[in-house]
C-alpha cells in the first residue's frame, strides 16, 4: 500500500499482522430488535471462593446481565434468540452461568451507541457490555463505573488466554489505565481496516474490462458502468459506477477511504492523527492532498458516475442498491464476501471481488488504520457481583473455538455464531492466515491446527464447487483464498510499506473529546458540499482553517506532547 516513509508506518509490527487478519466484519452482532430489561441487576461486588477452578462450574447458579450489539451480519439459527442460544446453553452447562439480556440495539447504526449512552446516564449498567468507543470506555473508567479486572484476570484466565496479553500487548495497553485493567480488548489487529476496491465480476466481463490499477482506469471503468449496459438488461445509463454513502469517512462500504489513500492521505474516520515524514503531528482530513482527491470525486459526481442521492443514503440503503444490481464497484474493507456482497452472490450467483486500491501517479499511497490500543472493549460494571464470570466465559470461548473439535468450531464459530458469546476475542482465521496460504501452496491441510482445517476445507470446497452455496465457504474464500483480500495485503500492501497507524491511543486530549462530534460533522458536511458542487474545491482551505480554530489546532498541540516523537 504505499511507498511512504512515515515514522508511524510500523515496519516491525507488520510482521505480526500476517497472523492476525480479521475474518468477519467488524464489531457487530446478531440482528434482532431491542430486548427488554432484565429482571435483576448486579449488586455490590463480592469476592468468589478462593479455591474456585478457573475453568470449573459454579456450585450455585450465577446470573450475568449483558448488553448486546446486534447487526445484520450475524444470524440467529434454529429458532434461537439472544436469550436462548447455543452459547447461552453451553455457558450454562459448563459454568452454571445464566445469561440475561439487559438491552440490545443495532451497532451498525448509532442505535447501540445511543442506547448505551442512555444506560450510562441512568447509572443502571448491566454486568457486562461492549463498546468500540474509546471515549466512552475512558469516561466510564475515570468515573469509577467499571470493575478493575487486573486481579480476576491474573487469577482466572487460562494459560492460553494469558498468552494473549503478551501477543496483543498494544490491545491490552489500550484497556489499561494507571496500571489497572478495565476491559478485555477484542485482541485483533486493526490491520483489517485496510480498504480494497470491490468490483462485480459480471460487469467486468460484460464491458470487456480489466480490474483498474490506477485512478484513471478506475474512473474509465466507472464511466462504462454508469453510461453503458453492464447488467445486460438492454438499458443504458440505469446503473452507477462508484458507490458512496452519506457518511463518507466511516469505515464501511461506500466510504472514500480507499480513494483518498491513492492521493497519499491515510484516511480513517475522525481519529486519524499521525506524524508525517518530517515528524510533525498531523490530521489526515486536513492534508493538502485532500483537495485533489475531492476534486476527483466532484468530477465523477458531476459526470453522473456517482448516485446523486448518495447524500441521503446510509450504508444500509447503499447495500440495498448493491444487492439490487445498481452499482458496479465500491471501496470497502476486507470482509465484503461476508457482508454485503454475500447478498449479491445469493441473489444473482455473482462474485464481487476485492482488488488492491488503484493508485495515482505522483503519490505514494497511504492507508490509515486505527491504533492497536483502540478497538472493541468488553467491560464489567463496578457493581457486578461476579466479575470473574466474564473471565471464565472467556476461557470457555477460547477453548471451544480455538482448541476443540472441528464440530464445535463449526457449531460455535461459523455463521457468525461466535458473536452470541458475551465475550469473543481472537478469530481462528486471523491466527492461521499465513499457515493457510502455505497449505494452499502445498495442496494439503496436513500440519494445520484443528481450528484452521475447516477454513482450508471451506476454501477448497468453494473452489471445487462442493460448497459453492455455503455462506461460510464464500465468506472465507473471499478473504483468505489465494485470490482473496489477504494475499493482496501480504503480497502488496505490506511490501509497499503502505500502512500508517493512528497515534491516537486511549489517552485523548480533553479538547478533542469535547469537540470531536462537531469536528466530525464539519468534515463530512464540507466534503459532501465539495463533492456535490455546492462548494468549490478551494473551499477546502476554508474548512482547514475552521477545523483548526474549532479545537483542531489545540488537539494537535496536545497530542504532540501526549505522544512525543520517538
Detailed description of the structure:
The structure is a single chain. This protein is of the alpha/beta class and 566 residues long. It has 3 domains: 27-189 and 374-426, Periplasmic binding protein-like II (D-Maltodextrin-Binding Protein, domain 2, 3-Layer(aba) Sandwich), CATH 3.40.190.10; 194-370 and 502-562, D-Maltodextrin-Binding Protein, domain 2 (3-Layer(aba) Sandwich), CATH 3.40.190.10; 434-486, no CATH class. Helix content is 40%, strand content 11%. It contains 21 helices and 15 strands. The protein has helices spanning 14-17, 86-95, 111-122, 134-142, 150-156, 159-167, 169-174, 201-206, 215-227, 257-261, 290-302, 315-323, 341-348, 388-402, 406-412, 428-442, 453-464, 471-480, 485-493, 510-532, 539-562; strands at 62-70, 97-106, 128-131, 176-177, 180-181, 184-185, 196-200, 240-242, 273-275, 281-283, 327-332, 352-355, 367-369, 377-380, 499-501. The strands form 6 sheets. Strands 8-11-7-12 form a 4-stranded mixed beta sheet. The protein has a 3-stranded antiparallel beta sheet with strand order 3-14-6. A two-stranded parallel sheet has the order 1-2. The two termini are 24 Å apart. This is Extracellular solute-binding protein. Residues 31-49 have a biased composition (Polar residues). Residues 31-61 are annotated as: Disordered. Residues 1-24 form the signal peptide. Keywords: Signal.
Main structural class = alpha/beta
The total tally of domains equals 3
Query: Ends: how far apart?
Result: 24 Å
The share of residues in extended strands comes to 5-15%
The helix content, as a percent range, equals 25-40%
